[in-house]
UniProtKB/TrEMBL annotation:
Its EC number is 1.18.1.3. One of its GO terms (molecular function) is 2 iron, 2 sulfur cluster binding. Residues 101-200 form the FAD-binding FR-type domain. InterPro entries: 2Fe-2S_ferredoxin-like_sf, 2Fe-2S_ferredoxin-type, 2Fe2S_fd_BS, Beta-grasp_dom_sf, Cbr1-like_FAD-bd_dom, FAD-bd_FR_type, Flavoprot_Pyr_Nucl_cyt_Rdtase, FNR_nucleotide-bd. Its cofactor is [2Fe-2S] cluster. Keywords: Oxidoreductase. PROSITE patterns: 2FE2S_FER_1, 2FE2S_FER_2, FAD_FR. This is Ferredoxin reductase. Residues 4-95 form the 2Fe-2S ferredoxin-type domain. The keyword Coiled coil does not apply. The gene is thnA4. It comes from Sphingopyxis granuli. PANTHER family: NADH OXIDOREDUCTASE HCR, PROTEIN RFBI. It holds the Pfam family Fer2. Gene3D superfamilies: 3.10.20.30, Nucleotide-binding domain of ferredoxin-NADP reductase (FNR) module, Translation factors.
Length: 339
């Protein structure tokens, strides 16, 4: 495979590897190409194909309507470069990556269970692990078609260690391979980092994190960075985490095990299944409801920086609450939309 010239009308050009995805090649070239999920679901990476061609990696991706497609629009995260082409898209400086993503070969080292269906998986790459706390990587797993997006749970480091907290989803291809098939020493592809839902250490607000499921992974990374960042010493940090039952909560082996997290982060766990709550004295209900009750007691919802990650219905409910009901500015909300 050779390299192709991609012209972005009125804004420049870059070289891309044929056979690779257009969005990832743009970001590797430090181009501020708008995106979000990297998985074909959100539509944020739409562009207009002016000349030349690309190949669809997923022609039925829900992020692009038939109408938009018939007008020449495509999804950059699902378009394979096949040769020179010209495109139209409005680049934005906030999407220029601090650490341009790269494809690594990653060796699986092992995992430690956190709950009956959640574990923290360790991978090692050559060179340092460069990313911002809260970002994600695309994992290329054996026997799985397409890459899977998982957020890092650790901090950037010089040792090339990348860890991910992942919940085993029944019938889920990616989490199934990780839970049942992968063995220490196996090699996988790790492409990253990606994502804009990372810790903003310069934001002048206290911190609130909200999560469910594997969403604990980036929130652990964000909180670990925040408690080790001296200028954030005077900020309060709250974590709201929802699970179905008490035994689904991964808090003991994540937030309570690390002395700095245990000391600085106020964790508010909640369970959603009341029938399991007989010996449970904590919060119950959906996590956005628990958050709402708490925000009513503290008064001003606009004095926090919010980071949230979890299943799409949780993300939608939290976003609706904060942005529409409580009018928190969008610049204070940080969430990735995986599909
Ligand atoms: Fe491409 Fe979401 S559809 S980034």
């Amino acid at each position: 495979m050779g390299s192709a010239r991609i012209e972005i009308l009125d804004q420049g050009e870059f070289q891309a590897e044929e056979g690779e995805l257009l969005l990832r090649e743009a970001l590797r070239n430090r181009i501020g190409f708008p995106y979000d999920c990297n998985s074909g679901g959100c539509g944020s990476c739409q562009f207009e194909l002016v000349s030349g061609g690309v190949e669809d990696a997923w022609s039925a991706a829900p992020g692009l309507s038939e109408r938009a497609r018939s007008r020449g629009r495509r999804l950059a995260c699902q378009s394979r470069v096949t040769g020179d082409c010209a495109i139209k898209v409005r680049l934005k400086p906030e999407f220029v990556p601090t650490h341009p993503p790269a494809l690594h070969s990653a060796r699986y080292e092992g995992c430690r269970p956190l709950t009956s269906d959640m574990a923290e998986y360790r991978f090692r790459c050559d060179g340092s692990a460069d990313f911002l706390p809260g970002q994600y990587a695309m994992l290329r797993l054996p026997g799985v078609s397409g890459d899977r997006a998982y957020s890092m749970s650790n901090l950037p480091n010089a040792d090339g260690l990348w860890t991910f907290i992942i919940k085993h989803i029944s019938g889920g291809q990616g989490s199934g391979v990780l839970a049942e098939k992968i063995r220490p020493g196996d090699l996988i592809g790790l492409d990253g980092p990606y994502g804009l839902s990372f810790l903003r250490p310069d934001a002048d607000h206290d911190i609130v994190c909200i999560g469910g499921g594997s969403g604990i992974s980036p929130l652990k990374s964000i909180c670990s960075a925040a408690v080790r960042h001296p200028p954030l010493d005077n900020r309060t940090i709250h974590l709201f985490y929802g699970a179905r039952t008490p035994s689904d909560l991964p808090i003991d082996r994540t937030f309570r095990e690390d002395p700095q997290l245990a000391e600085r982060v106020t964790v508010v766990p909640a369970i959603s299944e009341a029938s399991h709550g007989t010996s449970w004295s904590g919060e119950t209900g959906m996590i956005h409801e628990v958050l709402h009750r708490w925000l009513e007691t503290v008064g001003d919802a606009k004095r926090f920086e919010y980071y949230f990650c979890g299943p799409p219905p949780m993300i939608d409910a939290v976003r609706r609450l904060l942005q529409i009901d409580l009018r928190v500015p969008e610049t204070q909300l940080h969430a990735d939309s995986f599909v």
